[in-house]
TrEMBL record:
SUPFAM superfamilies: Cytidine deaminase-like. Keywords: Hydrolase, Metal-binding, Zinc. This is Cytidine deaminase. The keyword Metal-binding applies. It comes from the Eukaryota. One of its GO terms (molecular function) is identical protein binding. It comes from Caloenas nicobarica (Nicobar pigeon).
Length: 137
């Protein structure tokens, strides 16, 4: 199920903390993410830009790649934080597709700078998606 209480607060806090490590000299748009595995571990990530813009990587993909490099491929939730003021931060299309590689049945916590959040299922953010099971058809 969804993270509750202290675990949820920790997930949200870790996404905000990860934002502080963002390397974003070009966009000046720091983003942090914290990924909760089904085993209860949290992996954080930040966006890392590059002068060759297409070589940058988003916070969500950084967190996912860190978790995978440590042997985790089953996820319960991810929280995303930015300084967007009045708007909730949402993952880009590339991040949604990378998330989709690991199923549609997990939660995405979209936050505002003031700490408020909404929860969406990945299947809501990427309907009619293409995943690993489609390659077996």
């Amino acid at each position: 199920g969804r993270p509750q209480g202290e675990k949820l607060q920790l997930l949200l806090r870790r996404s905000r903390e990860a934002k502080n490590s963002a390397y974003c000299p070009y966009s000046r748009f720091p983003v942090g993410a914290a990924l909760l595995t089904t085993s209860g571990e949290i992996f954080s990530g930040c966006n890392v830009e590059n002068a060759c813009y297409s070589l940058g990587v988003c916070a969500e993909r950084t967190a996912i790649q860190k978790a995978i490099s440590e042997g985790h491929t089953s996820f319960r939730a991810i929280a995303i934080a930015s300084d967007m003021g009045d708007n909730f931060i949402v993952p880009c299309g590339a991040c949604r597709q990378v998330m989709r590689e690991f199923g549609t049945d997990w939660d995405i916590y979209l936050t505002k700078a003031d700490g408020t959040y909404v929860v969406k299922r990945l299947e809501e953010l990427l309907p009619l998606s293409f995943g690993p099971e489609d390659l077996k058809k």
